[in-house]
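Request: Not sure, any thoughts?
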Amino acid sequence: MSHDLSRLGWDDLFASSYRPFDRSDAAPARVLRADRGVCTVFGESGVSRATLAGAVLLAAANDPVDLPCAGDWVVTRRWPDRRVTIESVLPRRTALIRRTSDKDATGQLLAANMDTVAVVEPIHPEPDSARVERLLALAWESGAKPLLVLSKCDTSRDPDAVVRQLAELAPGLPVVAVSTRRSAGIDHLRTYVTGGRTLALLGRSGAGKSTLVNALTGTAVMPVQAIRDADGKGRHTTAYRNLVPLPGGGAVLDTPGIRGVGLLDTAGGLDRAFADVAELAAHCRFGDCGHGAEPGCAVTAAVENGSLAPRRLASWRKLHHEVEVESARKQSRAVAAAGQRRRRT
């Protein structure tokens, strides 16, 4: 039985990237899940397990981000002994990458080739504005289109009021309140996975991502942990990235629950996540305005007249400082690596 890969997002652009690898024993496939050198992939012949070829491991030796991840399109090869190997990862259209917490602060790939990233934040017990802003910056930087999903809206007496409040953190973006218990907002979310499109879910553990996957697919494909009523927190239900094809086409990508949201060199994504602040900054008298005590600062004027919340400005400053520090560290690592290469030669 041959499966139509266009239902999973295969298109002319990916087909063009695959063409140089096309041969009788090769085939394109999409990674559903990656587990320490072994990937579950979906190709024209269905689901199979594939190990990583040496060329893939060598290409990722300097940067683990180059390893296959859920959502990637890859070139597979079937051997006479029925082994399947991944020979290459096709160029990614979008990539969701966060900074790791180790001393090297390298990138960790969470998902690839998604069309939309839904930042999922539970209404109960109370949305975390700072976390939402960080996740939206991460989503913008991925190259995909973000949206904000407020889960468990059945736990709020006035979910519309919460939507209006959180919409201020997502200027220009759709904000969708959902409840799997009441099936509210689920049909709206399904519009983001029609026509072979992929929707990635991003949020903390206990936000309800796996429950949303089950609601979108119409069956229990992801395990769900009960959360603690007191603080709304739960165990890490999903410790891996998992791409789930939907019966009508398209796919939803469940990412691991995130405790900490580290930003890499994401100045572009940060400015888009804080589009309201960036627009004000464009009207400051001086181009290098630090938005402190400088005369003619449109940002501080907005805070003073109440059109911009002080907390919003403080969050923007904090995240910009974090990105600047990480950019400097990245540059230092590049200089050190170049020095080592010169010494070796």
Summary: The longest helix spans residues 310-344. The chain has three domains: 5-89, 95-254, 274-344. The domain at 5-89 is CATH 2.40.50.140 (OB fold (Dihydrolipoamide Acetyltransferase, E2P)).
